[in-house]
Design a protein that fits this description.
mainly alpha, Ferritin, 7 helices
C-alpha cells in the first residue's frame, strides 16, 4: 500500500509537470558548446556558479548512486535514476564550459555536501528515503536561487546559457523530490 501511494505521488508530480519542463532543450547553444561569452573574462559570480554547479552535480550523482543500496522504494529509486542521468550529463557539460573558460574544476563535492552524503550512507529504508528527499529539496531550492541570480547578473554568456539550461531540470527535480517527500511522510 505504501509503495502504491509513493508511486502514485511520484506519478502525480510528473503528471503535473509541464511537458516543456520535462525535456531540456535538446539543441541549445550551451549543449553544443557554441554559446559565446559577452566578456573575455569570467566574473567571480560566473566562476562561483559554475564551480557550485559542478560540486552539486558530483554530490547529486553520489547521492543517487546510494539509493539502490539503501532502499527499494520505487519513487526514491525513480528520482535517483533521473538525478543520476541528468546530473551526469550536466556535470560533463559544466566541466567542458569550465575548461573553455579557464575556471578551476572542483573534483569533490563541497564539505557540507560530503557530510550530507555520509549521513545518507548510514541510513536505510524509510529513513533513507525521507532524508534523501529532504536533501534533494533543500539542495535544489538553494541551487535554483543561485541559478536565477546567475541568469540575471552573470557576465559570461556561456555560463548564463548553462544556468538557463540547468534551471528547468533543477525545478523538475525539486518538484519530484517534493512528491517523494510528501508520499513518504504520509502516515
Amino acid at each position: 500500500m505504501k509503495k502504491t501511494l509513493i508511486s502514485a505521488a511520484c506519478a502525480l508530480s510528473l503528471a503535473a509537470t509541464p511537458a516543456s519542463a520535462l525535456a531540456a532543450p535538446a539543441h541549445s547553444a550551451w549543449e553544443h558548446g557554441t554559446a559565446a561569452t559577452t566578456t573575455s573574462t569570467v566574473s567571480a559570480q560566473d566562476s562561483a556558479w559554475l564551480q557550485s554547479a559542478i560540486q552539486g552535480d558530483l554530490a547529486a550523482v553520489q547521492a543517487a548512486q546510494l539509493a539502490p543500496q539503501r532502499t527499494s522504494n520505487p519513487a526514491a529509486l525513480g528520482l535517483a535514476n533521473w538525478i543520476l542521468k541528468d546530473h551526469t550529463r550536466l556535470l560533463q557539460r559544466a566541466e567542458q564550459v569550465a575548461t573553455k573558460l579557464g575556471v578551476t574544476i572542483p573534483t569533490t563535492a563541497s564539505a557540507p555536501e560530503q557530510a550530507q552524503l555520509a549521513t545518507l550512507a548510514g541510513l536505510t529504508g524509510r529513513s533513507f528515503v525521507a532524508t534523501f528527499a529532504a536533501y534533494e529539496i533543500t539542495d535544489h531550492q538553494q541551487f535554483i536561487a543561485m541559478t536565477q541570480q546567475e541568469i540575471a547578473g552573470g557576465t559570461s554568456g556561456m555560463v548564463r546559457a548553462a544556468a538557463r539550461f540547468y534551471l528547468p531540470i533543477m525545478e523538475r527535480h525539486l518538484r519530484t523530490a517534493q512528491g517523494v517527500e510528501a508520499a513518504v511522510n504520509k502516515p
